[in-house]
């Protein structure tokens, strides 16, 4: 039996849009997250990540379309302690210790996991007696993570949780999140960083200008934008040469400026062979696309 078929999706967005006046922040997002997935919501500034996460958290409502969390309306899922969030900033009292902060938060809920257990799960038992004001940015984020674990949520949302952390802070933070997710929690995190998404998520949902432009594993996303750029000067470049370049197998993008041509192709050899043998091309250069290029070409910023 297919287990996914009988359990409600952790998140189900159907045709979701969200406008603020004439700004269309989210433009028709369909997204299903299955229980137990660790998913990165990757996109440049202003892509619509926070707006979407706010709707999953029930903090705002879609202008059109529907959002469900574990088969419930988002607010109901949050009220039942099924969802919690680690936000980027806000709300910590510097003079309390780490343990006092978690214990205080726990006292606000009717029923929570034991304080020591969430401290251990967030990897901050060793700093439990440290004042919050003395904790690094990374330690403070792990503290927020511990607080979010108190209701033992099925779904954890993180909005750019590692902004401003150094490399080691990031690594410790993600190790704690990954170790916890191994036990079956669904995690959705927003990030600007392709490397972070690639390293820590099972699945990457790439959003740009309010639309999902790619969805898959890190290697699938890279493959979508894989290939090489071939640049050359082509004296006598005309419509016929352009049309022949476009018709070569593997060519997915062609930019022409005067005599300069830049071709993006999965088969750069075929492009180079054609240019060098059938046109007057010179100064030919072949470069490979890296992760950053892949991201930029998929989000349309390049
Ligand atoms: N309350 C609001 N009123 C007006 N416009 C808004 C509001 N909230 C978001 N927007 C706009 O909606 C678009 C998407 O913003 P959003 O914060 O969701 O993007 P993001 O992907 O989270 O970006 P970032 O990575 O910079 O946080 C942006 O153009 C933003 O300016």
From TrEMBL:
Protein name: ABC transporter ATP-binding protein
Main location: membrane
Listed InterPro entries: AAA+_ATPase, ABC_transporter-like_ATP-bd, ABC_transporter-like_CS, ABC_transporter_ATP-binding, P-loop_NTPase
Entry-linked PROSITE patterns: ABC_TRANSPORTER_1 (PS00211), ABC_TRANSPORTER_2 (PS50893)
Family matches, as Gene3D superfamilies: P-loop containing nucleotide triphosphate hydrolases
GO molecular function: ATP binding
Protein's membrane topology: Peripheral membrane protein
Source organism superkingdom: Bacteria
Start and end residues of each ABC transporter domain: 11-234
Keywords in alphabetical order: Antibiotic resistance, ATP-binding, Nucleotide-binding, Transport
Compartment(s) where it occurs, according to its Swiss-Prot or TrEMBL record: Cell membrane
């Amino acid at each position: 039996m297919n287990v996914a078929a009988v359990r409600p999706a952790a998140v189900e967005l159907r045709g979701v849009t969200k406008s603020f006046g004439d700004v269309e922040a989210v433009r028709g997002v369909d997204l299903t997250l299955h229980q137990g997935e660790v998913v990165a919501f990757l996109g440049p500034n202003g892509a619509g990540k926070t707006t979407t996460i706010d709707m999953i958290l029930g903090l705002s409502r879609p202008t059109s379309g529907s959002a469900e969390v574990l088969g419930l309306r988002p607010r109901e899922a949050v009220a039942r302690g099924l969802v919690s969030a680690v936000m980027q900033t806000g709300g910590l009292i510097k003079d309390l210790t780490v343990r006092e902060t978690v214990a205080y938060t726990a006292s606000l809920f009717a029923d929570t996991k034991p304080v020591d257990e969430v401290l251990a799960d967030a990897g901050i038992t060793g700093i439990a007696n440290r004042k919050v004001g003395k904790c690094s940015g990374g330690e403070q984020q792990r503290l927020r993570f511990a607080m979010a674990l108190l209701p033992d949520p099925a779904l954890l949302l993180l909005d750019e949780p590692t902004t401003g952390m150094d490399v080691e802070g990031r690594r410790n933070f993600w190790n704690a999140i990954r170790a916890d997710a191994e036990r079956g929690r669904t995690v959705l995190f927003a990030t600007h960083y392709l490397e972070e998404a690639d390293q820590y998520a099972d699945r990457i949902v790439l959003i740009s200008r309010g639309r999902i432009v790619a969805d898959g594993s890190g290697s699938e996303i890279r493959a979508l934008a894989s290939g090489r750029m071939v640049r050359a000067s082509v004296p006598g470049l005309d419509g016929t040469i352009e049309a022949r370049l476009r018709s070569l197998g593997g060519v997915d993008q062609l930019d022409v400026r005067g005599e300069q041509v830049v071709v993006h192709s999965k088969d750069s050899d075929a492009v180079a062979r054609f240019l060098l043998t059938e046109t007057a091309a010179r100064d030919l250069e072949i470069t490979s696309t890296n992760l950053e290029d892949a991201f930029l070409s998929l989000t349309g910023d390049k």
